[in-house]
Design a protein that fits this description.
The chain has a single domain (2-139), classed as 3-Layer(aba) Sandwich (Rossmann fold), CATH 3.40.50.2300. It is 41% helix and 15% strand. It has helices at 14-29, 50-57, 87-97, 117-139, and strands spanning 2-8, 33-39, 81-84, 104-106. Strand 1, helix 1 and strand 2 form a beta-alpha-beta unit. The longest helix is centred in the last third of the chain and has 23 residues, at 117-139.
């Protein structure tokens, strides 16, 4: 089994949606890869945002059990790849934390925090597309 991580700021919107969508698709395809998520400024133990839960429910993905994780809740060397939502996240990981550049990849997903349900839906759909692209790497 291989593991990847999705990285954002607070681990309440983008990265938990990406994690849950990715894992559902990976399980459905029987692929030996799973995702976790964490935030670079997360307060551990919080729930996903209500809007993230709602828009994921619309596509059959359950985020109700999500609890936020901070970067140091994990051993970063255990991951096959770290997928960053923004260039800032990638820069922090490579320059401040010392993660090798070949271990991180930029997704470039805009933060929906504070936005409308439609903003969250657009974010969810972008993340679903990202999950498809990443899964394709493990199918080959």
């Amino acid at each position: 089994m291989k593991y990847i991580a999705f990285v954002c700021t607070g681990n309440t919107c983008r990265s938990p949606m990406a994690e849950a969508i990715f894992n559902k698709k990976a399980e459905e395809r029987g692929l030996p890869v799973r995702a976790v998520s964490f935030g670079l400024a997360a307060v551990p133990g919080l729930a996903a945002s209500e809007k993230a839960i709602e828009v994921c429910r619309e596509i059959g993905v359950d985020l109700t059990g999500h609890k936020t994780h901070f970067i140091y809740d994990f051993q970063l060397g255990d991951f096959d790849k770290l997928y960053c939502m923004s260039l800032e996240h990638m820069t922090i990981l490579t320059q401040s934390v010392g993660v090798p550049e070949d271990m991180v990849e930029l997704l470039g997903v805009v933060d929906p925090y504070g936005g409308s349900l439609e903003t969250y839906r657009m974010c969810r759909d972008v993340l679903a597309g990202c999950a498809e692209e990443i899964l394709a790497k493990y199918e080959n």
